[in-house]
Please model this.
Amino acid sequence: MHSASDLPAIIATLPLMPYKQACYRIVDFATLTKFAPMMPLYVLGPGLNGQRYTPKGGPSALYVAEDPVTALAEYTSVERIVLVTDPTHKKKKLVNPTVQLTIKVNLERILDITDVAVQSALNTTTAELTGPWRKQMIRGLFCPTHVLASAVYAAGTIQAMRYPSAQSWDHANLII
Model:
């Protein structure tokens, strides 16, 4: 990944594309219903805890998958991480009831970082984009996805990034 100081100029040259299709998200039923009224498109969580493309304290963000199978794979991966990192969990844990959301996405300017030409311009790879961001964040190390997302957000012209799923590189997600 190029340095944070070089990224703005590079991002300004990258092609943006329109995006219009259904996307999917899996949400815990309890999380969905803890607000009145319900907020199915709640966007503050990633900035509170940090996510792959959102550093702690980062901007509001909505993560969605392009297909239901990837949405479930992303959700179960997060559940596994929570179970492993929470020392108070019991070995036998009931699976939380979940809700699958189908979201109609219609955007004009997205950056597709699944595109190898875009990755090349950014001096990154799918392996780096799907790498161990959580360990990097916890240890205070360079986290390329956070640096990239911060530069994209600062550009102010890009509505979303399409990125490779860490669960299956041939599937994609969107951070809006």
Summary: Residues 79-85 have pLDDT under 50 and may be disordered.
